[in-house]
Predict the 3D structure of the following.
Amino acid sequence: MSRYLICLLLFMVGINQCASRKEIAQFKKDLFYLQQRSERIQQDTNTLKKGMVTQHNDTEEIQRSLTEIIFLVNELRDETSQTKAELLTETGNLKAQSNILDSKLEDDITRLSRFIQKIESKTFTRPVPDTVSTNSRAVYSGEEISLTAEDLYKTAYLDFSRGNYVLALQGFQKYLIEFPKTEHAADTQYWIGEIYYTQNDFSVASTEFIKVLVNFPLSQRIPNALLKTGSCFINLNDINEARMYLGQVIQEYPRSQEAGIAQSMLDELQ
């Protein structure tokens, strides 16, 4: 650009003698315009360079951000794959355990069905009195069938669940006589109370439930037995006794489901 200006100056000197003052003035004006235009172009060039530098910096920042995002995505993908593998393993373990439990349940059902068929295949008569009798026993014709503690309990409970209370009572009583110290003894005593409770014989039912409290103080049936004893006394209109047993449930087993039921029953008594 500077060479261009020098040439113009020389040209001016060369034509100074022949050019009119008006033309010289116009030439100077044009030269000044060109100088301003040149400066403006230089400023625009500098601005453009700065913009390119800024854009380059922004591009580098974007590139760094993209690199971090890609790293995080890959890390998340790895964690997801690991979690998926762990879930698949856990699901497989649960499925295997479920299959084992299903197999055991099927075996138990099969054994119980065979046992019931064995019992039903024997010829015997069962007494069916109008009311529950604590002394009634099944009379078998031809032979006495020998039962294990587990078989006897399951048979009695099956009768109870079917509503055959007479037969269930006979089975439970026989169980307590022959196996008084086994694992189902407390449950057996509790179900005897339930049989009488179901038939609205609340006086005898309360006595049977109290036997659970006295004979099996460490049993898990204690909260149920206390609650049912209190309910028996409510039905017998003995409110003081009812409050005592219901209060015992709340005091000794405050976090149990029976405690919540006992509290509701006490609230209704007030």
The radius of gyration is 50 Å. Confidence is low (pLDDT under 50) at residues 122-145. The chain has two domains: 55-121, 143-269. The longest strand covers residues 124-125.
